[in-house]
């Protein structure tokens, strides 16, 4: 990521604040055993993957002030931990001129505190029964000594920016989606009855990492038979039986942008008549919802329409008698924003605008028949309506059966 991308983001953010408001963002801390994954808001504003760093921005009448705090390169620790980001490199990549070391953070903040009205930070959830976030922990002294400073979650000021994706962001997302699609096709070409669900998971992860992407965007769901009727089944530990449908809800992450795709297929290569009926119902609904997408449409309208359509399909399938019973077989949202977070910032009541990326993911789940179907695509809102970013990943019954047949 280059400074040309992140400088305008910070300008927009600081300009949207009131005078004497500040933004303090804490990077993710060093990960010891797991692969490091940067805090999304920090990455969005600085472009830096450095652990432990801190961004400080202050809006004032005499121009905005910005500082970046980074770790020192302690020669003895370099042997163990490797070289850290240097001042010059941090400056060049982020476009922040004032780059100083972390041990000066408290002194610098003390200097600014008497002037600050409000601090927006990545303090996260504030539930009383949840552990205190790292940002909250670091800002505790401010809270105690300067109780007049309001400390608020940065999401409210950054989400209007993050929910409208620029071309560069769409490119990253497209890469994550394309690699996920290739992995899904790998699975279709390889899956067979008797395999374990986690074998299919491994296959997809192999494709992700072989393609130069490091992470899953979220815990993958590979669910066969009745497992597919558990919405967030993440165990992926069962053996696949020969007449099972397999539901995959998966997404690779690239530059912290996450794909989110669901596909469902019969492991033995052919849909039974009943599986075909249920699958076709979900696919009809999915296409109709995608058709509705355009600037000005409310996300909640998609949800209402999806429920109505699925209710009609469930009555046709002989599963319910009245539309009000729809939640017996369909109980989740049809759409959410997608981006750096799989369930990205933007909210459920948002009005769609060009640059939004959302999922469309209706499903029908029938535990008593061991059938669970979800079909999910990732859709970009454009001036003219919509563009399905995952359109190359097969979902028509004949396309799927064609690929599955090719296995023998
Ligand atoms: Mn989703």
Global shape: elongated
Largest sheet, spatial ordering of strands: 4-3-2-1-5-6
Helix percentage range: 25-40%
**Beta-strand percent range:** 15-25%
CATH topology of the largest domain: Creatine Amidinohydrolase
The set of bound ligands, ions and cofactors reads: manganese (II) ion
- Give a quick account of the main beta sheet: strands, pairing sense, barrel closure: 6 strands, mixed
Helix count, DSSP H or I runs of 4 or more residues: 12
Low-confidence stretches: none
Give a structural overview.
With 408 residues, the protein is of the alpha+beta class. The chain has two domains: 3-162, Creatine Amidinohydrolase, Chain A, domain 1 (3-Layer(aba) Sandwich); 167-405, Creatinase/methionine aminopeptidase superfamily (Creatine Amidinohydrolase, Alpha-Beta Complex), CATH 3.90.230. It is 37% helix and 18% strand. The protein contains twelve helices and 17 strands. It has helices at 3-16, 40-46, 75-81, 87-94, 105-112, 134-145, 155-162, 167-190, 197-210, 273-292, 299-316, 397-405; strands at 21-26, 54-58, 65-70, 99-101, 118-121, 150-153, 215-216, 221-224, 245-250, 252-254, 257-258, 261-266, 357-360, 363-366, 371-374, 377-382, 385-388. The strands form five sheets. The chain has a six-stranded mixed β-sheet, sandwiched between helices. Strands 7-10-11 form a three-stranded antiparallel β-sheet. The chain has a three-stranded antiparallel β-sheet with strand order 8-9-12, with helices on one face. β16 and β17 form a beta hairpin. The radius of gyration is 24 Å and the shape is elongated. The two termini are 44 Å apart. The mean pLDDT is 95. Bound molecules: manganese (II) ion (MN).
